[in-house]
Write a structure and sequence with these properties.
Number of strands: 10
Order of helices and strands: EEEEHEEHHHEHEHEEHH
Distance between the termini: 36 Å
Shape: globular
CATH architecture: 3-Layer(aba) Sandwich
Strand order of the largest sheet: 6-7-8-4-9-10
Largest sheet: 6 strands, mixed
Helix content: 25-40%
Radius of gyration: 18 Å
Structural class: alpha/beta
Length: 229
């Protein structure tokens, strides 16, 4: 059964500008949902709002998951001067039940167990993203939020990340990922949210959106994307 994110006339305002707004809207979260739209559409802001990193400037947001039940992974995460294993050990500050075995299993699950004692700052972009996925797994969230998870990754690393997204869903996690890669959206998503100018304009199945978007903005967005490709 879908979990519902309820937005009641929400506005998020930064520097006097509205960067996210909604009417009275319910957003279903289930399976793998793709969040698409042009740059500046409000995708990252919506992910932050869902995770609880920010609160509405106006209106109400009723989240189906608490911040403790969700994990947010950005497309680039700065690394500390620590080893890969030490990065994961830091989670014990908030998740005290995490064991050494759990850390080993998390590293193994994303394919970087052999890098456990390496400096995290020396990881490649793809390896950093795998470490972020290992952190998310250790938190054992019900909801995983991903902001452009394959941005700036080579094809092999992108394939690995897509496989990890699929595995998260197979393990019963709800996944919401923002992406500019329409082929990736077609491969992974069972649901789709289209945004533009800080507004959610369509909530539908990917096939329906790509065949027949219901808004002028959606049609124009697809035309630009396919021309760019």
């Amino acid at each position: 059964m879908d979990k519902l994110l309820s937005l009641h006339h929400v506005e998020v305002i930064r520097d006097g500008r509205i960067i996210l707004q909604s009417g009275d809207l319910q957003v279903p979260l289930a399976g793998i949902t793709a969040l698409i739209g042009p740059n500046g559409a409000g995708k990252t802001t919506l992910l932050r709002l869902i995770h609880g990193l920010i609160e509405p400037s106006q209106g109400q947001c009723q989240r189906p998951f608490t911040s403790d039940e969700s994990a947010l992974v950005f497309h680039y995460t700065p690394m500390l001067k620590a080893t890969v294993r030490e990065h994961l050990s830091l989670l014990r500050d908030t998740h005290r039940t995490i064991s050494d075995q759990a850390i080993d299993e998390a590293l193994q699950s994303v394919g970087i167990a052999h890098l456990a004692n390496n400096p995290a700052q020396r990881l490649s972009a793809g390896e950093r993203q795998k470490l972020c996925f290992a952190q998310a797994r250790l938190q054992n969230p019900k909801l995983v939020l991903l902001d452009e998870p394959t941005a700036n990754l080579d094809p092999n690393a992108s394939d690995d990340v897509e496989q990890m997204i699929t595995e998260l869903a197979r393990d019963g996690k709800v996944v919401l990922f923002a992406s500019h890669n329409m082929a990736q959206v077609k491969r992974l998503a069972s649901n789709l949210i289209f945004m533009q100018d800080g507004k959610i304009l369509e909530i539908t199945h990917p096939d329906a959106f790509f065949k027949n978007p219901q808004t002028k903005e959606g049609s124009q967005f697809l035309a630009r994307e396919f021309i760019a490709q």
